[in-house]
Write a structure and sequence with these properties.
Length: 291
């Protein structure tokens, strides 16, 4: 069988030791040296697997329920506003609404995944088992964010698939759709880690989500075009990074947007860089994790 690193050895050593299953013709086990990098890679994969398995084990709650919520939004808003809201010329309001709901679901669930995982680990005390393995803070960050993006993409794909029978959706620029979906999920995954690190109890995390994430998402153009707003609210929307995530994502479907997709890409890229740097700085210090 293939070699597997089971545990790193003493910290000063430049290599770790791993147990190798014996050849069928041998008896017992044999040892081989294994680099710290290999040991960290095993730890990273294990942490990523644990985070993905965490939400997948309760997928009825973490995936199916958000998809149902988004479909209810679609049915209600499309029925009430379909003939009363003007968006992109010949595009029906129901069709316009679907990409916004997909992205909203993706963002909210990416945030929920990383934030809830960290706060639960802190409150139950099992965060120590995540911090003990020889993982760098970069690998720790990557595992949580990738798992958050995975959950966000899964929910977003579910919303999209369930919505297709109701609308005829174009896919003008698939690459833009993928880029904004990945970057949006990574941004909210990072923000979820910040919230999970900062919060000491579920009440604080709920306040973070209810007073920051939810308003920014709802006021980001999910249900309306920016040009349908008064000038004051258009100016306010331009300082909301969630607006640029959703507007750029919607551009990938229709080839039309409220602002330049390149501006949206720049804002989203800068937002991700800043949040990633802040999250890595908190992890490097061990803020509220090791102290």
């Amino acid at each position: 069988m293939s070699n597997r690193c089971l545990r790193a050895c003493a910290k000063p050593a430049p290599v770790c030791w791993s147990l190798r299953w014996a050849n069928p013709t041998w008896s017992g086990y044999s040892w081989r040296s294994c680099t710290v990098r290999e040991a960290r890679l095993v730890g990273f994969r294990t942490l990523l697997y644990k985070e993905v398995l965490r939400f997948w084990k309760v997928s009825f709650q973490t995936v199916a329920a958000p998809v149902l919520n988004a479909v209810l939004f679609l049915l209600i808003f499309s029925h009430v506003l379909d003939r009363h809201v003007t968006v992109y010329g010949d595009i029906a309001y129901t069709t316009f609404l679907v990409p916004g709901l997909v992205m909203m679901s993706l963002l909210q669930n990416a945030f929920a995944n990383s934030s809830s995982s960290l706060i639960q680990s802190k409150i139950t005390g099992n965060i120590i088992f995540v911090l003990l393995p020889p993982l760098s803070y970069r690998e720790f960050y990557a595992a949580y964010v990738i798992a958050a993006v995975a959950r966000g993409l899964l929910v977003g794909a579910g919303v999209l698939l369930v919505s297709l029978p109701f609308v005829e959706l174009p896919f003008a620029h698939p690459l833009w759709i993928l880029v904004f979906a990945l970057m949006g999920g990574a941004i909210l995954g990072s923000l979820g880690m910040i919230a999970g690190i900062w919060a000491d109890k579920f009440d604080q995390l709920a306040a973070f989500q209810n007073f920051l994430i939810l308003p920014l998402t709802m006021l980001s153009g999910v249900f309306y075009s920016l040009h349908s707003l008064p000038q004051l609210w258009q100016d306010i929307s331009h300082v909301n990074p969630f607006f640029f995530m959703i507007d750029g994502f919607r551009y990938g479907f229709f080839g039309q947007s409220d602002v330049s997709p390149w501006l949206s890409l720049a804002v989203v890229g800068v937002s991700f860089s800043l949040l990633a740097a802040l999250t890595l700085a908190l992890l490097a210090r061990g803020y509220k994790l090791r102290t």
